[in-house]
Structures are given as C-alpha cells and as structure tokens.
Amino acid sequence: MLENLSQQPADKILALMAQYKADERPGKIDLGVGVYKNAEGKTPVMRAIKAAERRLVEEQESKSYTGLAGDPAFADAMIELVLGDSVARDRVAAIATPGGTGACRQGFELVRLANPQATVWVSNPTWPNHVSILKFMDMPQKAYRYFDDSTGGIDFDGMLEDLAGAKAGDIVLLHGCCHNPTGANLTLDQIDEVIAVMEGKGLVPMIDIAYQGFGDGLDADAAVTRRVATAFDNVLIAASCSKNFGVYRERTGILMAISKDADEAALSQQNMNYLNRQNYSFPPDHGARCVSMILSDPELRADWQAELEEVRLGMLELRKQLADELRRLTNSDAFDFVAEHRGMFSRLGLSPEQVETLKTDHAIYMVGDSRINIAGLNKDTVPVLARAIAEVIGD
Ligand code: PMP
C-alpha cells in the first residue's frame, strides 16, 4: 500500500530552515521562519506563561477531557481580546483549535459544510498554508491582487477590482493585522471600502489574525477585525495565540463564527463542535488554559501586555533602523516602506536571484519571495543586512 505514495511538495520555509542549520559560516543570519526572536536570537517563554504554567501545576486537579469546544473560559477571554464589545456575545460561536492553522482549517471545513460552492478568495500573496490547505481540501480558491512589489504597498485598486468579480456567497480571507508575508496592511478607510464592495456583492468575510499585538498594539491590531465584525451578519475569525503568547508548540488557537442571531449561533456552535469531533475530538488545552488564566488575572495580564509591548516596540525600532540604513546606503527612499510595514514580516521586493545571492554570498537567509522576519535581526545585524542588500541590488 504505502509504495503507492508519491512525494508531497516540501514546505519551502522548513526546507530553508534546514539549509540554514547546515550552513557552517559564522555570522549567518536567519530571517526565514516566522518565529519571534529577541536580540540574542532566543524565543523565550513569556513571563506570564511561565507564571500561569506554575499555577497550573499547583492548582490543576484533573486532566480529564474538556468539552468539544474546549474550555469555555478560553473562548470568553479570546472573544473579548479579539472582538472587544463590537458584537453581542450570544452571536459568537467558538471552538478551541490546534493553533491558528487548526482554526483556519476548521474555518474552511465550516465553509464547506455551509456552502460547498463558495470560492475562497485569498490575497496575492498570502500565508502559503492558506493556499495549500485549500488545495488539499479541494476547495475552490482564487487570489485577489493585494501587494504591489514596485512600491512595497497595497495594490488597492487591483484588490477592489478583483473582489468585485467574486460571486455572492464567496469567502474573502483577510489578514486581521500584520499581513504575512508582506507586512503591508489595509487602513481603516480602505477596509471600509472593501466592506462596501463585499456587502454589494454578498461576500462573506473570514479573518485570520495571528499577530495581534505585534503591529500597533492589541486594540489597534484588532480594529480591522472589529470593523468587519460589526458590518456583517456572518464572519469567521481564525485567531492564533502562537506568537502573541509565545506558545507556538502548545498549539493554541480558536475559530470564532459570528452568526446573525443567537439561534443561528447555536447552530454554528453545534456544527463547529461536530467538526472538532470528526477531526480530533477535544482540542489541546494546556496553552489555552494558560492564555485564559493570563487574560482573566489583572496582574498576569498586565505583565503579559508589558512584555508583548517590548516585543512590538523592539521590532518597530529594527524596522526604522533598517529603513534608515537602506536610505543612506542606496541614496533613495525605495525601502522606506520597511518602516511603514507592521508585524514580523516585510517583503522587500527582491528578485529570486538576489535572494539566492544573499544566501550564497552573504549567508543571509530569507524566504524566496524576499520576505524577511524582522525579529531575526538585532541592532548589530541590521547594518550587515542593509550593506548586503545594497550590494545585491547594485549588481
Ligand atoms: N495565519 C498566519 C497568517 C500565520 O502567519 C500563521 C503562523 N505562521 C498562522 C495563521 C498559524 O499559526 P499557528 O498554527 O502556529 O498558530
């Protein structure tokens, strides 16, 4: 049987990680995988998570199953964190999921149950896993224009034009903040225009929010999601705690479905529980329990927010430093967008050949589309990167 298997496409980012690991050159720089790293290149366990884990060890009396939707306190806390008071709580159904990936997958599963004809529209480019999961599920997908490589900004006219070509009931997948892989984000005015087009065409929004707190702050980063949430009867939201709580390996995420009223929400909830049951029964609980403990304890929450803010401001500082260096070295404003982008990523607009040269000649690793992880830098490596970029674009 197993001899019938054929090779599956390799994950490009994971392959890049392996190449980086095997590179023996001193001073090599890893700007590949999307994991936050501090100035020492470490991905530390956040203080509040450590405290919550200690408390859990002391106080948890059972590891019996949770409900199919996960711990209700986790759902309450995350709905409050992401949606604030933008939507009545009884309109929101939610299931805990294994990470944001699980939330996306379950969101797509819910779409397929509710409307198998729906095409899912993803930004060009988007997080590659969106595309590959949809492909794996054999769901119709199309891309809308989003990023303009020549400016490092958004091709907004292209985006609106493409969305206007979607059919009623189609799903528009938006990134809540800190767009991956580009770093370019819609303004609130732009999202209002997108909402108007979507309402006009009867499109349904799905939001993937994986970096809340990494861009402009916790509430500012949720603003697009909340604006969309108030505008539509139905909204799907896939949220990840991997980055903003630093619990990558605990697999902590949540799928929310906003329904038009409480009755519809009960039906959504029942279907979402069913989807959890079919795919893995009970979702992981450890990370979720730590997250809800932090969010509901004022002291832990304040400490978490303070640490997250340090992370956010550190990345902004690196962005500014890199944009300044590039401006100086290239004598142009061509890379000013690096300081405008938000989140962990920026797409630099370099060619695949230039990306390859950065790797072979400078031991600088970035994704083939020239996405860099800002958090892979520190104040000493920013000038190294800037010099290398100036050199390869000067070639
Ligand atoms: N969505 C986006 C846009 C992401 O960048 C990521 C992480 N790379 C995720 C979802 C999911 O992350 P995880 O499954 O690790 O929570």
Attribute tags:
alpha/beta, Aspartate Aminotransferase, domain 1, Aspartate Aminotransferase, domain 2, 2 domains, 7-stranded mixed beta sheet, two-stranded parallel sheet, binds 4'-deoxy-4'-aminopyridoxal-5'-phosphate, pyridoxal phosphate binding, pyridoxal phosphate, L-aspartate:2-oxoglutarate aminotransferase activity, transferase
Structure description:
This protein has 14 helices and 13 strands. It is α/β, with parallel strands linked by helices. β3 (120-124), α5 (128-136) and β4 (141-145) form a beta-alpha-beta unit. The protein binds 4'-deoxy-4'-aminopyridoxal-5'-phosphate.
SSE map:
Layout: H1 12-22, E1 29-30, H2 47-59, H3 72-83, E2 92-97, H4 99-114, E3 120-124, H5 128-136, E4 141-145, E5 147-148, E6 153-154, H6 156-164, E7 171-175, H7 188-201, E8 204-209, H8 218-231, E9 235-240, E10 253-258, H9 262-279, H10 286-296, H11 298-330, H12 337-340, E11 345-347, H13 352-362, E12 364-365, E13 371-373, H14 381-394
Parallel strand pairs: 1-12, 3-4, 3-7, 7-8, 8-9
Antiparallel strand pairs: 2-10, 5-6, 9-10, 11-13
Helix pairs in contact: 2-10, 2-11, 3-10, 4-5, 6-7, 7-8, 10-11, 11-14, 13-14
Bound molecules: 4'-deoxy-4'-aminopyridoxal-5'-phosphate.
Residues 34, 99-101, 104, 127, 175, 180, 208, 210, 240, 242, 248, 253 line the site of 4'-deoxy-4'-aminopyridoxal-5'-phosphate (PMP).
GO molecular function: identical protein binding; L-aspartate:2-oxoglutarate aminotransferase activity; L-tyrosine-2-oxoglutarate transaminase activity; pyridoxal phosphate binding
Cofactor: pyridoxal 5'-phosphate
Protein name: Aromatic amino acid aminotransferase
